[in-house]
């Protein structure tokens, strides 16, 4: 990776050694074999150094898309461009470095605690993550270690460009809203590195170990419970008692699945029943009866009580003995197991909607044509194929383009993506077809203009409410790698079919129902049509090739969120597609 940094800059050997290699060496001496996280990405010995260097490499490749400083004269860009490139490397080194101060306790072999503001670790050591740590505190303290890592000569060089010095400082101290283009590039590079690590790709200039599905599921559960789920709160997802951790089903499992998909983990079953089976087979959840994983429970506290379907987890899977939170002060009483089945979708879709989905899947399996409002020459899939990960053998340019979800190089990419899910879709179709066959739904129920059509409007409103809430609370990320929502030309751009699959998977556990969600959304009329066409094409231009996203433009972006975020600098609106 050092060679890649050398190849991507235009510094002389002496300048590279003094201003790039020396800070990296000081950083390596400081972090040594420390991990980048406890149970998330790069959580192995040496993971922090690997993560920083990988970010620097991705950041410099992303930087090539920009003329820096922004808006400067060509002669100024030529004279100071290398400093801006170096600043991206510095930001990659510094963006998480204070985790070594506030997240980790370093204990030397003689029992003393070492803190890195005293310098590199001087003796053999062991590491312990602090219980109850503040996950945002490190950003505020990152600049504290700039003197040790970057050194006075680098800081002098940076201050020769006060604007750049400010952007870098804002970026590494957590004020990314004021970090400008530096913050954008570093954030994209961070996401790319995390996605690669979570995807378990065997390509390792980074030497990250390939982890089992069991490890990925366990790490994902720890992350979601510790950092995402509300614990012991009315309306929350998780309830901790003295004997067990209870998670609301299927909501918690759907959110776990969505999170792992976002991190590039492609081995997670899309079918919810199979995912319950994997969790149970690996001993991550406890069964209530033979083949049953979902418990019926009553949660009560004082004058309120809820009946909920839950999965049961051992608290030791999530917490050590020292950092376990206080248990729920109310009661969780088990009432048996869920008779419906482990898939147990929440009542979001009506029988007519389920029937419509099965009818569509049956046509697809029988080889009948179905109508899709996407140009056949520029297909888009939501299932990453072998070209959609950061894989060995490809150029880093290809790697960078592949970190955007729903990009497709052509028909072959779509075919490969469909192969990934073909078995689970067929299995799910068979199961759901059996359910619908016993529900006495006539074909008239599914005809346009009948109850089935009105139900589409209902699911469209559900989708819109979910989208507004997700953008508001940032559970749906905007303008990011793997994001299904971006901003282009001053409005929101919804990636299709990714955003509809994400909603379907989160609400019912079956992402293959996305077409109903899409139809329901179109009926709302909240999107921009161009000469009667619904779908718009957005280009993502790399140094060597251009790929595309397809999706919807929102007519009134302020109705979705205020303020509307700035346009994604990577994307450009090109045309509408039939």
From TrEMBL:
Classification via NCBIfam families: ICE_TraI_Pfluor (TIGR03760), MobH (NF041494)
Protein species of origin: Salinicola endophyticus
Name of protein: MobH family relaxase
Domain of life of the source: Bacteria
Segments forming domain HD/PDEase: 44-204
Feature: compositional bias, Low complexity: 385-394
Pfam families, alphabetized: TraI_2, TraI_2_C
UniProt-listed Gene3D superfamilies: 1.10.3210.40, STY4665 C-terminal domain-like, Winged helix-like DNA-binding domain superfamily/Winged helix DNA-binding domain
Biased composition (Polar residues): 368-378
Region (Disordered): 337-394
